[in-house]
Design goal:
The complex is a heterotrimer of chains A (337), B (444) and C (331). Chain A is built from twelve helices and nine strands. Chain A has 337 residues and is an alpha+beta fold. Chain A has a two-stranded antiparallel sheet. In chain A, strands 3-4 form a two-stranded antiparallel ribbon. With 331 residues, chain C is mainly alpha-helical. The chains are: A alpha+beta (337), B alpha/beta (444), C mainly alpha (331).
Chain lengths: 337, 444, 331
């Protein structure tokens, strides 16, 4: 009996040792040389592998950082400035801090603002809806409400609001990776600067139809009246194709345009309430949802509830810029208060 | 044994309620909305402006390139405005809106009913005139006909195939046209034969139109090189690849054109339009449209001027019944559902179908039970269940490898699926994504 | 009309095919075999069938509602089919607790763990049956004697099935021709009146069901013909080589679960290939494995194992056997 055990130990041990030696030599022979700095840089990255930097995965981004001489064109939106300065110090370079950005939905065509004119009955997918027709309202540019952007978000920073039928971006969780921007078939999302103290202003509409059909289709459409353009003292607004656009880098957050907009298409986020009544009651103080502990929990509930609702009914995805974020964030935080 | 394509296909109930109804000409509408894009290819350039007076047959929009088509006014009157309005695509498109005044035609259009058999133009002149007259494929695809007739050097056409199959349920426009304008169609086919330099033309007709088969066979006896072939009633017999396989047993290679197997395929309605264009100097501005449905009181076939609102046609058959849930432009298998009925009839509108609410609503989707019915019915030999799953996973490389681009979007798969899965919706999504990827790949 | 129009992509009509029609079609096809089983095995057969079906539906409902927390889909008929086919694979004198264990394995492990309807790679009824065969070999191989029209609750006597008889006999060195005299004639095997699982007794009843399903386009002829054809050919070759040791095609076709397996188990749509070519490869594979196990293997019956082994090959078959593409460009 002892012989058997002895022989077994010797045989198996011998096989193990021989295999280990073979594996060691093979590993050495086929070893791929990699710059050790790639590992260092990868350590500093958040490992989300979201593709927001434009590279397929954090390791590829690390390789790109090591290869390049100038880090200013590379940016990890998830890790942000902190991560980029860590990467820079690992490589002995310096980077300038970039403005944090957030995804903004440039559409506010909620069920209340935009009348439904038909019923969509194909598979509940925004790209399919966009291929079928212009949407179940008379605005053919707006959000289709089926949630392709929410599915694309890898950071759980978005949910469909069942009341409005529009997607909501949770400001504090959005990493500006750009997944929703790429996913939206109507190109309604834009990455815009978060702004000083998270304040920002944008035109929540992508409707390029003339004023009359735009307004007929949606109450809060941009009708291209140019009042905002004339009001802006900082040349931050351009008019093109019956639509106003606010340049976030030039905007000084004075809110003059918001006051004169006749339809309420321009949204201001995270501003305090006005002392003077503005031209339109749409100027009510809209605050983006922050991230205090209680609100995060409440948000998680909303996310879960909305996910359930999305499963049941299709919602149009209005990825139009920021409007969505603003409205949804504002509404939910106002409701909670 | 009737000829047919060997693989796949389904047999939906034919529901040809408007069969045998003579083609009616409705009174002229008060306004027409003529979209500036009614064809595959480059958009046109609108030539008229607000306030201009136009006559019937006048050129109002010029083709924007070789693969494009002219557009002519279907009415006489004054241009009210040029604006973006909704058309059957569900988007607003640039259109010419004309207030109708009288019915004045251009002088050189021959309005008489006299049959003109002699073809005086040369091959090149025919192709040029077809282009000038704005002729596009009237089977529904609206491909500019002169492009099909312009055979590039190195390729030769042996057969002209006339698609008189009308395999879609409900539609009877081509059928009625064949019964009423048989001789004119034969002359049109002769024109097309001259234009493409072929000596053999085959007219393919599905066997559910025995009167048309008999009628055309009799007439074809007097025309050299034209034969009529009866085909099995199987959808999509009228798909050009399936038709070519059935009639002359040749398969158009994947990614290729009928010309690669020596064929030019034209719809029978197009042949009639070519006759009117070449022999009567009449541009394409009107066509036959079937308006029908299970709950329609007077299913009919109308000769409609392009730009007429679909509302007018629906009124003419008794109005939209109160239990209606869907209105489709074209046939039920490949047509386009309308979100509103005030859109205009265009060169590609072969029918207006009205569905009851219970017919219109899709059933809920169930999991795939791998019954392989979709594979069995696919006429192109694809695997729709797989294309849908792979598209949903966004694995577009695999979508391309599984030959999604070969799909002719006939709808047989979605039609058959016992789990009512929206197979074709996702296949279209996959095709769109793959096309974009290929375009990016070729740009590099 | 104030209602909104419905808009979708084409096609705008549907054939009317539905899951329910497919499933209930199979259930109707199973009725002849079920009635024959009831006739020959009496009350026991009714008991086993009823328990299997109720347990199958019940377990599926409980698992879906309380474990997976999804909407139960028991009305689509697939659990009923699993219950019926499982019952037809059982000897009618099986105790209730064994049936319940088998059904739980069939539905729970064979179907639900993979994701429910349409996701399982293995035939659930066979998963349950093989599990029981390996776990309770004695109870699973004591076949009751046929007692036609016996609806009393008295336990039936047991007797060996033809397959078991022949296998045992050949092992002991008996000559095949002697053994064949001890079992019923081919006609009896065909029509019924032979011991076995309660669904296997009458090839005629099974073929009737098969014909109904082919007529209703629920299954195609490819798998059954390939499988039975291969069984016949392979056993025929062996029989010609040595008629005293190897039984002939008729014996193998009509004994055991070959008929039931060919018509109802191998043709299960979820676990069979998606192309006709693939189905033929699948059927041939099952046929070869069945004869190998029956003749050279340890078990007298090989159909269940053969089908399960070929089920494992189906994804491979689906990947490499593609339908003939239209306009294939030869590179």
């Amino acid at each position: 009996m002892n012989d058997v055990i002895l022989y077994t130990i010797i045989t198996l041990g011998g096989i193990g040792a021989v295999s280990a030696v073979i594996l060691y030599f093979v590993a050495q022979k086929f070893k791929v040389f990699e710059d050790p700095r790639i590992d260092e840089v990868e350590e500093a990255l958040p490992s989300a592998n979201c593709g927001g930097c434009g590279y397929p995965g954090c390791r590829n981004f690390a390789e790109a950082c090591v290869k390049t001489d100038d880090l200013s064109s590379l940016f990890c939106p998830v890790g942000g400035n902190e991560t980029m300065s860590a990467v820079a110090s690992a490589l002995g370079q310096t980077v300038e801090a970039k403005e944090p950005q957030v995804a903004v939905l440039l559409c506010n065509g909620s069920s209340a603002n935009r009348k439904r004119t038909s019923e969509f009955d194909s598979a509940a997918n925004c790209t399919i809806a966009a291929a079928t027709y212009g949407g179940d309202t008379d605005c053919t540019h707006g959000c289709l409400g089926l949630g392709e952007c929410v599915d694309a978000c890898g950071f759980d920073a978005m949910y469909m609001d069942p009341e409005t039928g529009l997607p909501v971006v949770i400001e504090d969780m959005c990493t500006a990776c750009g997944a929703c921007v790429a996913a939206c078939p109507k190109d309604l999302f834009q990455l815009r600067d978060k702004g000083k103290k998270s304040k920002r202003i944008y035109v929540a509409c992508m409707n390029t139809d003339k004023g009359a059909p735009a307004k007929k289709a949606c109450d809060v459409a941009c009708i291209g009246c140019s009042k905002c353009f004339k009001e802006c003292k900082f040349d931050a607004i351009t008019m093109a194709n019956n639509k106003a656009y606010i340049d976030y880098e030039a905007c000084k957050l004075c809110r003059a345009c918001v006051a004169v907009c006749p339809t309420g298409a321009i949204h201001e986020i995270n501003f305090p309430a006005r002392r003077v009544k503005p031209a339109k009651e749409a100027g009510e103080a809209k605050v983006a949802p922050k991230k205090p502990a209680t609100e995060v929990e409440a948000k998680v509930d909303i996310v879960e509830k909305a996910k359930e609702a999305t499963k049941a009914t299709p919602n149009t995805e209005e990825n139009t810029s920021k409007n969505e974020n603003k409205n949804n964030e504002d509404k939910s935080s106002n409701e909670e208060k | 044994m009737l000829k047919t394509f060997p693989v796949g296909g389904v047999h939906p109930p034919e529901n040809k309620f408007s069969v045998g109804k003579p083609i009616e000409t409705l009174p002229l509408p008060k306004t027409v909305t003529i979209p500036a894009g009614q064809h595959i290819g480059a958009p046109t350039q609108v030539l008229v402006k607000r306030g201009d007076e136009v006559k019937v047959g006048q050129l109002i929009a010029k083709a924007g390139g070789f693969v494009s088509a002219n557009i002519h006014s279907s009415v006489s009157g004054k241009v009210k405005k040029i604006d973006e309005v909704f058309d059957s695509s569900g988007y607003r498109k640039m259109s010419v809106i004309i207030d109708v005044e009288g019915d004045e035609w251009l002088e050189d259009i021959d309005k008489s009913d006299e049959l003109k058999k002699e073809i005086s133009l040369s091959k090149e002149e025919i192709v040029k005139k077809v282009s000038e007259m704005g002729i596009v494929g009237l089977g529904g695809a609206t491909f500019p006909t002169h492009v099909k007739l312009s055979i590039p050097d190195g390729k030769k056409a042996e057969h002209l195939i006339i698609n008189a199959v009308e395999c879609e349920p409900y539609l009877t426009a081509d059928h009625q046209l064949m019964m009423e304008k048989g001789e004119e169609i034969m002359v049109g086919i002769s024109v097309l034969m001259k234009a493409t330099d072929v000596s053999k033309a085959i007219i393919g007709i599905e066997n559910n139109k025995p009167d048309a088969i008999e009628h055309l066979t009799k007439i074809a006896a007097n025309y050299k090189g034209i034969t009529v072939e009866a085909l099995k009633v199987q959808y999509p017999q009228g798909g050009e690849k399936q038709l070519i396989k059935a009639l002359i047993n040749r398969e158009v290679p994947s990614g290729g054109l009928p010309l690669d197997v020596g064929c030019v395929v034209q719809n029978v309605g197009t042949a009639f339009a070519v006759y009117e264009a070449i022999q009567k100097n009449k541009p394409l501005f009107e066509r036959v449209v079937s308006v029908t449905g299970k709950n329609v009181s007077k299913p009919s076939n109308f000769m409609v001027r392009v730009g007429t609102s679909t509302d007018i046609l629906i009124e003419a058959v008794g109005g939209l019944p109160s239990d209606s849930g869907k209105v489709v432009s074209g046939g039920p298998m490949m047509g386009k559902a309308l979100s509103r009925t005030d859109v205009p009839i265009t060169k590609g509108s072969s029918g207006v179908l009205i569905f009851k609410e219970e017919e219109a609503k899709r059933e809920k989707m169930n999991p795939c039970i791998r019954c392989a019915k979709c594979v069995t019915v696919c006429p192109m030999g694809l695997e729709p269940y797989l294309l849908m799953t792979v598209t949903q996973s966004s694995d577009y490389e695999r979508v391309e490898n599984e030959r999604a681009l070969d799909c002719i979007e006939c709808g047989s798969c979605s039609y058959t699926c016992p789990s009512t899965r929206p197979l074709l919706d996702y296949i279209r999504l996959g095709k769109g994504a793959v096309t974009k990827i290929i375009r990016q790949r070729n740009q590099k | 009309m104030g209602k909104l129009l419905s808009v979708s992509l084409s096609p705008h009509v549907h054939s009317g095919n539905s899951l329910k029609k497919e499933m209930y079609g199979v259930i109707i096809a199973l009725i002849p075999a079920m009635l024959v089983g009831f006739y020959f095995f009496g009350f026991d057969a009714i008991r086993v069938t009823a328990i299997s079906v109720i347990a199958a539906v019940g377990f599926e409902f409980l698992i879906q509602k309380y474990m997976l927390k999804v909407e139960p889909t028991i009305t689509d008929g697939s659990a009923v089919i699993t219950g019926l086919l499982f019952a037809f694979n059982m000897p009618s004198n099986l105790p209730i607790w064994i049936i319940l264990i088998g059904i739980l394995v069939a539905i729970g492990i064979g179907k639900m763990t993979f994701g429910g309807l349409g996701q399982n790679p293995f035939n659930p009824a066979l998963v349950g049956r093989v599990f029981l065969l390996v776990s309770f070999p004695v109870q699973m191989t004591s076949w009751p004697k046929l007692s036609p029209m016996n609806f009393s609750m008295v336990d039936a006597e047991t007797a060996a099935t033809p397959l078991a008889l022949v296998k045992e006999g050949l092992k002991n060195g008996d000559k095949l021709s002697d053994l064949l005299n001890q079992i019923p004639s081919v006609l009896d095997l065909f029509v019924g009146g032979v011991g076995g699982s309660l669904g296997e007794v009458s090839a005629l009843a099974i073929l009737l069901g098969g014909a109904y399903m082919i007529w209703k386009k629920i299954i195609s002829w490819h798998v059954p013909v390939a499988m039975l054809g291969t069984i016949a050919v392979f056993s025929g070759i062996l029989h010609m080589v040595n008629p005293e040791v190897y039984a002939g095609p008729l014996f193998h076709l009509f004994t055991g679960g070959a008929m039931l397996g060919a018509i109802f188990m191998a043709t299960d749509m979820v676990t069979s290939p998606m192309t006709y070519k693939g189905m033929i490869i699948f059927g041939v594979g099952i046929g070869v494995l069945t004869i190998l196990i029956r003749v050279f293997g340890a078990y007298p019956e090989g159909v269940s194992f053969a089908i399960l082994i070929m089920n494992a090959f189906v994804p491979l078959i689906n990947t490499y056997v593609k339908p003939k593409r239209f306009g294939e460009v030869k590179k």
